[in-house]
Amino acid sequence: MSTEKKSPAHVGIEIRHKKACGSHDGGKCSCRPSYRGEVHNPRTQRPAKSPWFRELADARAWRTRAQSAIYDGSFQAGTHITVQEACESWLSKAEAGAVRNKSGDPYKPSVIRSYETSLRLHVFPEIGSRKLSRVRRSELQVLVDRLQLARSASTVRNAMMPLRAVFRRAVLLDLVASNATIGLALPSVTGSRDRVASPEEAAALLQALPEADRAAWATAMYAGLRLGELRALEWKSVDLARGLIKIEFGWDPKKGRILPKSSSGRRSVAIPGVLMPYLEEQQTITGRRSGLVFGRSDTRPFCDSSLRDRAKRIWTKQSMNPIGFHEARHTYATLMIAAGVNAKTLSTMMGHKSITITLDLYGHLFPGAESEAGASLDAYLETV
Asked: SS3 sequence, 83-102?
């Protein structure tokens, strides 16, 4: 292969032809050349070069971004940064809140931990020592193909999610010319829907539990609180007189009390009549009117694994189908829909960031969805 520089049409662009290309003998190009951009880096007084691109437009785009970054002082040459170094830097910045998700919200500590675990187990051993700027989409696709031979589809996707975030950030910082994670062919996750309990089953599951455990499970089933929200809930946020629970915090196993992931997570949830006796019973059992509602003490949250394992043993012994806290939250959503609550209200009560999330999860459960769709089509066809 050989390279050449052309001017003025390709100023700052290096063109690399294959060995057998006719251009080497002064003839017409007979290959598909590669391109890379080049800019003068005033910090090092040396030229900074992009990776090789298959398309001229990509090399030009890199050069334009690099020139702009040099002008405003933000240009960084990323040739010596490895994948592992870039990922570890990203993780530390995300933990500090300097790097945020696409919605502009801080990453939850649990998300950062899961990202770190996926990278350490599946990415660093394979490409951790590779220069970030040298990683190609084809290389990542080979990694995906190899992982899915031995891992579940969700594991493969979880391994790529932090890489996507790292490359998005790297593009913004001009550490790489393009996002190598875009366009990857990932395996689909086709798990079954979470189980939900019927109204009669929900009541029976609660009654089978010890009195001290009922209120936490009932609040998940009849108010839809997440596990972390249950663990962080304090009595000062529970207004029994007005029938409202104010969700202000969540609980992380490592960080302790944390703010909700987004502003929609901070919300007020109605206490239905079916839940009220369980909360009143909880006050009687614990003798507390302050501190944590379901905690082992007023400051120590309940151990979710102990509560879950104890319930599972009891339900299994009584030939009942066990349910988890996340499934109890789904049960709340289905009960609300069956009671006639509209999608917008349900979205607010669940703490979803947008109604789209609610409809994606529960749209199929809203009554009349299929029949109304069919009737609408019939009505339209009658007019044409």
From this structure: HHHHHHHHHHHHHHCCCECC
Please state, as a whole number, how many other Cβ atoms lie within 10 Å of the Cβ of residue 278.
19
The one-letter amino acid code at 33 reads: P
Q: Which residues pair with 35 in a beta bridge?
A: 15, 53
Contact 33, 20 (CB under 8 A): no
Convert the pLDDT of each residue in 186-242 to its tens digit: 998 765 557 889 999 999 999 999 999 999 999 999 999 999 999 999 999 999 999
Instruction: Say what the pTM is.
Output: 0.64
Last residue within a domain, chosen from 72, 92, 127: 72
| Token pair 């391109």: residue | 35
The secondary element (H helix, E strand) that includes residue 221 is: helix 211-223
CA 111 to CA 250: how far, in whole Å? 14
What are 252's two structure tokens? Answer: 């992380």
Please give the full DSSP string across 309-357, using - where no structure is assigned.
HHHHHHHHHTT-----HHHHHHHHHHHHHHTT--HHHHHHHHT-SSHHH
Q: Two tokens at 246?
A: 């104010």
In the chain, beta strands by DSSP E:
2-5, 13-17, 34-41, 46-49, 238-239, 244-247, 250-252, 256-258, 267-270
* 108 vs 9 pLDDT, higher one: 108
Partners of 144 in the β-ladder: none
Cα 171 off chain centre by: 20
pLDDT of 323-368, one tens digit each? 999 999 999 999 998 888 888 999 999 998 888 888 888 877 766 5
Spatial separation of the C-alpha atoms in residues 192 and 215, rounded to whole Å:
28
- Based on the domain organization, do 28 and 96 belong to the same domain? no
Give the domain extent around 123: 83-172
Residue 97 corresponds to which amino acid?
A: G
Contact 343, 358 (CB under 8 A): yes
Q: Are residues 27 and 62 in the same domain?
A: yes
Instruction: Answer yes or no: do 91 and 64 share one domain.
Output: no
For the chain, state the CA radius of gyration.
28
